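Duplicate of earlier report; Arginine N-succinyltransferase input re-posted below.
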Amino acid sequence: MIIRPIAHQDLPALQAIAIESGPGFTSLIDDHEFLVNRIQHSIDSFACPVQSPGQQSYLFVLEDEASGEIMGTTGIEASVGLSSPLYHYHRSRVVHHSRELDLFNSVEVLNMCNHYTGCTEICTLYLRPRFRRAHAGKLLSKVRFLFMAQHPQRFADTVIAEMRGVSDGAGESPFWNWLQAHFVDLDFATVTQLSGAGNKGFIAELMPKYPLYTNLLSEPARAVIGQVHPDTRPALAMLEAEGFRHKGYVDLFDGGPTVEAERDQIHSIAGSVPCRIQAIARDTAVLNRAPASAQGDLLAIANTRCEGFRATLTRQAVYLPEHDVLQVPAALARSLNLDDSAQARFVRLAPAAIGRQSHTRTGPGQTRQPRQEFRYAL
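Output:
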């Protein structure tokens, strides 16, 4: 499995993903022109020299090296809400108190806001069902943090993730059903497609501008506020293990939670290790050659390029901290476009199997990850 920047040749696979992911996956919609523009914008973003985050959008694909098929996608928006408003509801409480009548009542409300304008957003993570395999979802999630760690000037100090909210197999959202009945007579699939395409004028024109008292919502609508789609729970758990937290902001359409973290405190960024590569062939003289059958820690490794970015997983790497050298098989180095002595960065995803020697040592802040894989995150 190799992760690389998306290219125009990936358009058919990206369109298939847009269809497979269904309503609610607002960062990809089944529209040919939209997808072509999304790919071109990503290509331009990777190629552009950047000193501070702007409207760049980075879209990666996970490729099966053996077949060349695209297994999934993952992406980063450098700075959201600049060209098109990024709306959320914020959950808070208001108190109604009459001292004269000795009555006190605290109620929950939802207020529309643009709190996350200018933040970096991780998005568009989708692992196609027929390509589910061990650690593929982890790689799609973690690779964004390796890229951020290597190119911090391209991203904001705060990173957010909008988690997919609750909807059923038919694409019906209980939260939106209530809003549709009272305010916006459009179905869930239509509003998510409009929003995904950047057509958000209807939000300002039709959505309620005053606080929504949640006790006025239907019971099904109230029950899903701040909840994630069942398929998204493993992804949420993974982000929480990275240090992301929900602070009361939810999606306008399905009520799903948005989580946030400070970029430099994300565990996979703080714990990533810059190193120098030693490409190991059969006849290479090495300081510490592991047995051929040895299985070390599972590492996500990436080169340090932007336009030519590559990343993958391996258990066949040996880290020598005293020399700041990561020894990797020569074939793996070639797949990452890494020459001998080139710079790279890695982060540990899982320890070596019990009873086998671990040959790597990573930086601080590593967290044990959930074992369950996932289809999509947000």
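Residues 165 and 256 are 4 Å apart (CA to CA).

Merging into the original ticket.
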